[in-house]
Amino acid sequence: MKYDHILIRYAELSLKGKNRKQFEQKLERNIREVLKGFEAIKVKRSFGRMFVKLNGEEETAVCQKLQTVFGIHSLSPSIKIALSEKEISEGALWAAEDALPSGRGTFKVSVRRTNKDFPIGSQEMNKVIGGHILRNMNEISVDVHNPDVELKVEIRSEAAYISSKVLKGAGGLPVGTSGKVLLMLSGGIDSPVAGYLALKRGVTLEAIHFHSPPFTNERAKQKVEDLVKVLTQFGGTIKLHIVPFTDVQTLIHKQVPDNYEMTVTRRFMLRIAEKIAKVHHAKAIVNGESLGQVASQTLDSMYTINSVTNLPVLRPLITMDKLEVIEQARKIGTYDISILPYEDCCTIFLPAESKTKPDKDKAERYESFLNLEEIIDDAVNRTTSHEFTPSADEESEINELF
Amino acid sequence: MIYFDNSATTLPYKEVVDTFAKVSIDYFGNPSSLHPIGKASEQLMEQARKRVAALLNVNASEIVFTSGGTEGNNLAIKGAAYQHRSRGNHIITTGIEHSSSYEVCKHLEKEGFLVTYLIPDKNGCVSASDVRKALTDKTILVSVIHVNNELGSIQPVEEIGSLLAEYPKVLFHVDHVQGVTKVPINFQRANIDLCTISAHKFHGLPGNGVVIVRDNVKLVSLFSGGNQQAGYRAGTENVAGIVAMTKALRITLDEAEKGTDHLQQMSHWLEEELMKIDGVIINSPAERAPHILNFSIPGLKPEVVVQALAERDVYVSTKSACSSKKNAPSRILVAAGFEEKQANSAIRLSFSFSNTKEEASVFLEKLKEVVATMKKVVKIK
How near does any CA of chain B get to the CA of A402, in Å? Predict the structure, then answer.
């Protein structure tokens, strides 16, 4: 015997009432997308569950991919068994032996019978299967409270599915079910994590980056592109908008007193982000701010900066400590990219002192000497956009060299 | 021309040389430079790193680019020995290593390390149980050549590796220079910590190689200087050579399945034909790498045979090119227990996938001619 299916359980989708079907369809599409490399597999939806038929593909590799898909609560490698008492018992024995290769330990059987035509009830089947396993494995015993292995047996209309392990899914909602947001991606540690957490709530993600050549290096841009590529592992295709920001920063630097420069710069970024969000139909902006982390992230700063837009600004990291963010960044694979030491646009003009309690009226007064509309429109017009996909092919010229 | 000296070096593929030329000109920047030209080189090199890693089925972070097999073996063995000196001073290797490993061990002995040189059997092979017997609680490194460069004998690296899995403090280095693309290794299953390969053995250019340093392994580096290659190898990277090597590896691996079958058949046919020649003894074991065949004609000086064949546009070698200028019996054959007369007169044929059976027949003809001519002059006992 061999695991031939992966059984997928949904997270919150079952709470979605009438919209549920739409959520399931999206999840199915996302699963197909992430499993593109496995040619033989088949994905099938059956009420309240999804099944990936392996057709010989490697089980652990498929599971690893599935564990990155939002909307999946858990998954279990399973065997599909014909609806017969004897075969189900045999299958369960195999799964128990697979989960306890030493032949020692405790187990419990949990039968779930959605197919009421199957003649034996759940409780009865528990006993039948448990008895069969106890008779055939010597050093094994039942523990219903804290077993080493829980054998899950689902008796459905078309077949029974048996699994002995449960792998945790990524949780959340399927990407693409919650509308579009625009992520402000700096290249630091925080913003990619913010993007990941936003994706977890099912949004479609686009990202915006402010690039200030020659003050920021080509490598800083590359870093952001690499971060976007990592995020595509969780969010499918992601569009990245690169805003040429040098002129804006130079103008601000000339016009605005040092201690308000950072605040005004952020206000400009937000205004530009809002414009780009409108053009691309994003309904919110996401950033990596965490309360009190740096000068621009005090409540006073947030208030002053945020007041230039009516668009919701989502801050998934708002309550997190730096160490928690780092841990999450490590888990999703962005940390090593984020810590590469290149200047970004937030550090180059960093004044000796920034106001931790900037005043909104003062910021507005300093800005009144600048031609806001013109500056913003110019930056938006020169913005370039590039789409990244999980399996992005490398440039063909480089390919030829290999 | 019939070229049967591919274990010394191979003819680079034309595509590989083209890539080398193009990268040398279009991506000449120093990969450590901050400007876009440097960045382009760096990106290309990192691409190469990823691809080499994928071809060898290891992580990109485990690839250290070197100048070739000698540097690789030096870095792996010295680097591991110096790094773990405080843990112990015992190293296990074999008597049939390439000189770039053998001499390193000899050097380490002078510095106070103890080295056990395992003695191979008649087939030129050591065994996992030999390694087990030699292990002490001071052992820090086991270094084994995968495919011997003179005999073509294949060491049981997977068995040795699974044995060493029980000794987590002992690092395992494999000199895979002759094996890569000819005799595959599963690095994970063989539990290998360090592995050396060299580009010019698979139609890349000399001056490039790789040491695979598994992620959990630390080495002392040989060169002081910049922080290139995760600190393992200071010095500006040879980007053109690296990319060219990557291409060579890809092309050779594409050909490997068909190529090794073909070589195996050719090598066994040649072996039978050679045995029909009076006075010829086969030195290579029956179970051997597909591209190496070693034989002796006791009584005939092998240098003379090599020269006489070269006059007929057939190119073979005596022993390893790295030691063939020394006028001494093959250290490898002596270590493998061959009699001096046999070890003194060894000739090595080494093939590439593009060598043909027709070439092998011509070689046989020429060899017979040479032997016949020489017998008139030299009396063979």
Answer: 5
Task: Take residue A106 and report the two structure tokens written for it.
Answer: 């405790």
Q: What is the ipTM of this complex?
A: 0.74
Amino acid identity at B175: D
Which candidate from A218, A219, A401 shows the least CB-CB separation from B19? Answer: A401
Tell me the per-residue pLDDT of B185-214, one tens digit each, with 9 for 90 and over.
Answer: 988 889 999 999 999 999 999 999 999 999
> What's the whole-number average pLDDT of chain A?
90
pLDDT reading at A23 higher than 60 = yes
How many whole angstroms separate alpha carbon B41 and alpha carbon B39?
A: 5
Peptide bond into A351 cis (omega under 30): no
Rounded CA separation B11/B203 (Å) = 6
Phi and psi at residue A40, to the nearest 5°: -80, -15
Q: Which residues of B are catalytic?
A: 322
Residue B274 CA neighbour count, 13 Å, CB half: 22
Instruction: Answer whether A222 sits within 8 Å of B51, measured CB to CB.
Output: no
Contact yes or no for A233/A337 (Cβ under 8 A): no
Close Cβ partners of B135 (under 8 Å, ≥ 6 residues apart)? B92, B167, B170
**How are beta strands A72-81 and A105-113 bridged, if at all?**
unpaired
Q: pLDDT by residue (tens digit) across B116-137?
A: 999 999 899 999 999 999 999 9
Count H helices, E strands: chain B? Answer: 11, 12
| Average pLDDT in chain B | 94
Answer yes or no: is pLDDT of A14 > 70: no
C-beta of residue A24 within 8 angstroms of C-beta of residue A45: yes
CB–CB of A398 and B44 under 8 A?
Answer: yes
| pLDDT on residue A341 | 76
**pLDDT at position A213, please?**
87
- Residues paired with residue B92 on neighbouring β-strands, in sequence order: B116, B142
A402 to B22: CB separation less than 8 angstroms, yes or no: no
Q: Is A398 on the interface with B (CB under 8 A)?
A: yes
